[in-house]
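Box S1 | Example of a co-folding query
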Amino acid sequence: MALPIVIDTDPGIDDALAIMLAAASPEVEIRGLVAVAGNVGIDDTSANAAALADLLRLDCPVGRGASGPLRRRDATAAHDVHGADGLGGHRLPASARTLEPGIALLARLVDESAEPVTVVPIGPLTDIALLMDERPAAARRIGRIVLMGGGARDVLGNVTPVAEFNVWFDPDAAARVFAFGVPITMIGLNATHQATVGRAHLLRLFASGGPVADLVGRLLDGYHGTDADGRGGMPQHDSLAVAAVVDPAVVTTVPAFVDVEDRGRLTSGMTVVDESGRFGAINAEVAVHVDVERFRDLLDTRLSVLDATLRRG
Ligand code: BDR
Ligand code: CA
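Box S1 (continued) | Returned holo structure for calcium ion
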């Protein structure tokens, strides 16, 4: 049976690929998408989430979540990486869907599911923290959180030397989520910087040549971030988190105690990862190694099948 998932997202170029991978994977069933402010403002992330749901013919509700961090007032969007509207300048047809209030939607989707829902946050953690504060009983029903955020070991930050964007944007929310007690898998920069993908890794998809190939090609071309390996690949931050749900063998994890620096002068937004467990009780599985070939193959296989399906109409 497919695992029920809810994706909380700030599309976002790599968010779009992540949603496509989930839509293309029979191992999971997308019960809902909830947008959060992050890469761009909430008007654009929610419009992009709804437009992607239309493109992918997702039969699930789309929610509009938080418009900004819990407390942080100096967080800024990532227009330099994701363009003015979040999809690298590529506008999808506007959706006519009615958006539901995001936190209420998250609570309903988690509450009404017979099986525990896996929540996949691939943007700032504001919505998830609000769910935990406003609807704790529903939040405790979450089966697992598989989040893209933070960094461990050799790669800690991309906004500052020690802070990754999703955690840096709303460190108070991230601290709340790691302290709450739901099982967490953390897919941080140390893992996503291993998972680089460029056009050369998606040959079946581009040979297929349909709407998904078109969009993914434009998204990869519109990405203005730094190549992690200097060889033309884009670090697949968000789709690696989805891949870890679809095919857990893609990542190797270690248990750790994770907390978030929410007020440091130089370190605000840093995930502090203690693999020894001496400084706090283990609260997360942290990805440390990626089977890159397996990940690229999963992405290429799944997206090319999705492309052919959508092309047939
Ligand atoms: C994360 O920040 C965003 O820019 C990406 O979409 C990803 O979720 C990487 O640090
Ligand atoms: Ca994202």
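The chain has one domain: 3-312. The chain has 13 helices and twelve strands.
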